[in-house]
Design goal:
Helix content: 25-40%
Strand order of the largest sheet: 3-6-2-1-9-11-12-10
Structural class: alpha/beta
Oligomer: single chain
Distance between the termini: 40 Å
Order of helices and strands: EHEHHEEEHEEEHEEHHEEEHEEHEHEEH
């Protein structure tokens, strides 16, 4: 039995016309003798009646702090409605289809309401239906804890559901359908000559996703990578092959592009971040700590206790520098002041990430990046690199110019 998992996002399900296009993709797969599992997100975007963000907004009109357990029950409704409507759509076209909730599909999670992690998948029920030639439609984003509580998987949870089911079922591939043609070298709204990447490695796309690219959730990529199940990101509304995410291409032509060995694969960016600097020289805090390593520990422990995630960390002999999301900046500064520090906060920044498997051990990549920014007048506020990524921090108003400059410099449009 050749199994194919197809996941469809909310923008692909927001109208009956679009749902018929989704059904056509399922019909095509069935016609190719695949046993098909369809994973669906809630229909539409915020403002649409059953979208997840709309349901959250409804809850907030009652209370800004709804209990997480009940919030999970509310948020899971959008995907269940979407799955039920999709089953009816497939049945109207002559396909035998059945809805299985996350629990019925065997997705077992821990008990962390709102951001549960999948512990295992027990796919026996899915397999039984597939053997009876039924298309299984499962709502994404949800599972069940070991003590029977309904849980949701956090943002990007439907991608994660699809990947987990694909791995558990030994699927030939996992197709992530969306409203774009595939994964691109940069955001096409910023870069006119951004192009679709026909093939990309698991590591590169997971890294791009972690750094702000929103086409697929990094957790889904990391799950698929565990068993080397190919992912394909493609459009619901065209026949374009999209982007294949894999580490190997058995039928690649001689001389084909090497997966994961381009210098730069793509560029992602995260706007609306704030850079925070804390001087260590003379930075004695209210508790009398003046040992620099202890001061650094105290700073980051203070952020952690306040549930503030820090990024782009640079610890130097004379200062600590890091970034936080813009909405957390005021709280972070207040905490530091209460600890006896005098922090400097630079708001309205953007972190730009250049990702590529070819960065490792290649001299001159950082020089090329900084040179490209200097040539177009972009001021670099902070920079760092690893064996697969170069990061730069710039002012938000210079973000687009910076992305365009680096896209040109590394010839990503060719």
């Amino acid at each position: 039995m050749n199994i194919l998992v197809q996941k469809f996002g909310g923008s692909s399900l927001s109208s009956q016309e679009k749902r018929l296009q989704v059904a056509n993709k399922v019909l095509q797969a069935v016609g190719q003798d695949y046993a098909v599992v369809v994973v669906v997100s809630a229909m539409g975007r915020e403002g649409d009646p059953y979208a997840t963000d709309t349901l959250i907004s409804v809850a907030k009109t009652v209370s800004p702090e709804m209990p997480k357990r009940e919030m999970d029950m509310l948020m899971s409704c959008g995907e269940i409605i979407s799955a039920a409507v999709m089953v009816m759509t497939l049945q109207s076209l002559g396909l035998e289809a059945v809805l299985l909730t996350g629990a019925q599909a065997g997705i077992v999670t821990n008990g962390a309401f709102g951001d549960a992690r999948i512990l295992r998948v027990e796919p026996e029920s899915i397999v039984a239906h597939l053997k009876e030639k039924r298309v299984v439609v499962a709502p994404g984003f949800q599972g069940v804890s070991e003590n029977g509580e309904l849980t949701t998987l956090g943002r990007g949870g439907s991608d994660t559901s699809a990947a987990a089911l694909g791995v558990a079922l030994g699927a030939e591939a996992i197709e992530i359908f969306t409203d774009v043609e595939g994964i691109m070298t940069a955001d096409p709204r910023m870069v006119e000559d951004a192009r679709i990447l026909p093939v990309v490695s698991y590591n590169d796309i997971a890294n791009l996703a972690h750094q702000g690219a929103k086409v697929i959730h990094p957790r889904a990529v990391e799950i698929a990578m565990q068993r080397n199940v190919p992912l394909r990101v493609r459009s619901t509304f065209s026949d374009s092959p999209g982007t294949l995410v894999t580490n190997s291409i058995p039928d690649a032509a001689v001389g084909a592009d090497v997966v994961g060995d381009r210098v730069i694969t793509g560029i992602a960016c995260t706007p609306n971040v704030t850079q925070i600097q804390v001087d260590l020289d003379g930075g004695v805090n209210t508790s009398g700590v003046n040992n620099k390593p202890q001061i650094c520990t105290k700073i980051f422990r203070g952020m952690a206790l306040a549930d503030i995630s820090v990024d782009f960390i640079s610890v130097q002999p004379e200062r600590v520098c890091y970034t936080v999301r813009g909405e957390w900046a005021e709280k972070a500064v207040e905490i530091l002041r209460n600890m006896g520090f005098t922090p400097r906060a630079k708001q309205d920044c953007a972190k730009i990430s250049l990702v590529g498997g070819g960065i490792a051990d290649l001299p001159g990549v950082m020089a090329t990046v900084l040179g490209a920014l200097e040539e177009c007048g972009v001021v670099t506020l902070q920079s760092a690199d690893s064996h697969t990524t170069v990061w730069v921090l710039v002012e938000k108003e210079q973000m687009v110019a910076a992305v365009q400059a680096m896209h040109r410099k590394f010839q990503l449009g060719k």
